[in-house]
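Translate structure to sequence.
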């Protein structure tokens, strides 16, 4: 198959039954309007993409802040658990410590005097 012939107006000639018909799909005006519409849609898409990137950056920033706050909460919980554990140990073993010290003092008095 060879190239389709082109007439003097720049239109392709389509062959049918040995005859050639010139046919232009879109006029220059329609093509220009489509290009303008495409450009407008492309600009809208770019604006939406900028907005999406900004939203993603804000989301990532929030994610980092949440992780930092979670770390702080974990630290505070560990400190609170440690304080509670120490206080519980003092309450549980405090009586024994006082009893041992009292027994040692009494035994010292018994030996000393």
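Result:
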């Amino acid at each position: 198959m060879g190239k389709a012939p082109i007439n003097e107006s720049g239109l392709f000639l389509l062959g049918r039954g040995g005859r050639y018909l010139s046919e232009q799909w879109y006029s220059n005006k329609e093509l220009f309007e489509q290009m303008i519409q495409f450009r407008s849609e492309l600009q809208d898409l770019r604006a939406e993409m900028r907005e999406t990137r900004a939203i993603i950056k804000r989301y990532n920033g929030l994610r980092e802040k949440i992780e930092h706050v979670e770390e702080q909460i974990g630290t505070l919980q560990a400190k609170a658990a440690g304080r509670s554990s120490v206080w519980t140990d003092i309450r549980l073993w405090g009586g024994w410590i006082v009893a041992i010290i009292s027994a040692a003092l009494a035994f010292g008095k018994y030996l000393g005097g």
